[in-house]
Amino acid sequence: MVGALFLVTMLEVIGVIGWGSSHSQSYDRFATEIFRLIVLALGLAASLGGLLLISLLVLYPDLTLYLTTVFRPVFLVYGVLVIGFTLFTYGYYYSWERMQGGLAKWLHASLGVLVNVLGIVLTMLGNAWSSFMLAPAGVAEHGEFLGNIWHVLHTALWSPLNVHRVASHILLGAMVVAVYGAYRAMTAKSFDERQHYDWLACIAFAFGVVALFTMPFGGYWLMREIYAYKQQMGITLLGGLLAWLGLILVTAMSLLFFAVNYYLWQRIDAAGGSPRYERYAKYIYAILALCMMVSITPHTIVMSPLELQQMGGQQHGVLGNFGVESAKMPAVNIMIVMTLWSWVLWRRCRVQGLEQTMSQRDWFLAAACLVGTINLVVLGTYGYFLPANVRMGLALPMNLTPLFLFIFSWILCPALTEKSTKPAQWGSLSTRGYGALIILAFLVTWVMGLGGYRRSSVKLYWHITDVMRDQSPWAFTHSIGFATNIISLNALLFWLGIGLIFWMARERKHITPKFMA
Length: 517
What we know:
This protein is an all-alpha fold. It folds into 2 domains: about 1-270 and about 425-515, no CATH class; about 270-300 and about 315-425. It is built from 19 helices and 2 strands. The chain has helices at about 1-15, 25-60, 60-70, 70-95, 100-135, 150-155, 160-185, 190-230, 230-240, 245-270, 275, 280-295, 305-310, 325-350, 360-385, 390, 395-410, 430-455, 480-505, and strands spanning about 460-465, 470. Strands 1-2 form a two-stranded antiparallel sheet. Helix 2 packs across helix 19 (about 480-505), helix 8 crosses helix 9 (about 230-240) and helix 10 runs antiparallel to helix 18. The protein is globular, with a radius of gyration of 24 Å. The two termini are about 25 Å apart. Mean pLDDT is about 80; it is low at about 415-420 and about 510-515.
């Protein structure tokens, strides 16, 4: 919800800044169409929230009562903000037709910014409850509230969890919109309609990929704070009970980059860039595969005595060197660099007057990506000579490397200037490209489910770490297979619900404002 609202407001702001241009009305139309999905989902979200509250009261009354006692002032603020968020969201939607053009349009966009601020604050308050259950603060040894609500809110994990979850909301919201655009493009009855939704899907995809690039940094930061709070929790996540589930999560994350690159190369083919660039695709996929193998290599895992004896120790003699963050962090960031290079090639293949081979500027951009990759490898190698608690600090320069390359390519790539580009081949994307978007969106949902389960399960038999223990006879951590099956079922149910909203948005024409007709 919050991520989709952020996308709506960004599209409106882009349209307002370029008001009067050929694309401004298209951005405005995209925003209103996405907003229609959000309004349809608001009622469903409220119903599910009420069901969750009732479930917590029935299944976990003591935990709910304790959290209500500790977070009483926050709950009151949260309730007021929910009401305000709902009212402002509906006001933002239904005032769209009346506030068109001039100062009124700027005021309307400002209202959208306010709605997003409220949504982010609500997300942060919800994160405070989760982070408190993982790393409680502001309470005595046996859980007595010490009276400082700021300490209860601002726990050791609150800030990294906020960054990670807000980026996740944007990523998921963008992927939902991208799937909606792909669905409408594939079922379009005219080529103009197909072009419209193809462009919508691509814009949403671009927002989602930018959010995806921030996920590794947020994940590393969160993991570092978990280790700093309680080392045993970090060991349980990466080398203990949840290690195999972590391998599944990392594998799914790596597949995300394969799906993103496959979509981009389908875009390159649709834009007519295959004769010039297709020979380089195999190298990109080879590097992605190599980085994936490094990223899924475990450091230590739970093994039987026989497996331990066959391996000759807790770590493999050779592959164990790739199981530490000094290898995994460069691998993930190199995948981001390769994805960025695919994006640059797609933009470059739309430049007017380029030959069927790579130009001098193409090679210059390729050299920049190569230098960035070498920098990541050097930083990763340097990490082997640092203590584990210091090594995690290399995540910042590693994540800044793809960011610098993104800004550098954005400035240098001439395809970003409208006069030098060919007309975009919207509507000519293959069905395989739309299929890649759908698979990408499902993988995002699956990864979020797996990550949330791991973050919750790291408490093991505690409701609130070291404060409130789960005394019920069914207090246990599920097996990897059962947990994965349930998470997969939840992802499937989620997308069935999203499909229902898509159908309602298409069929219920009477809810569409007049200016969208």
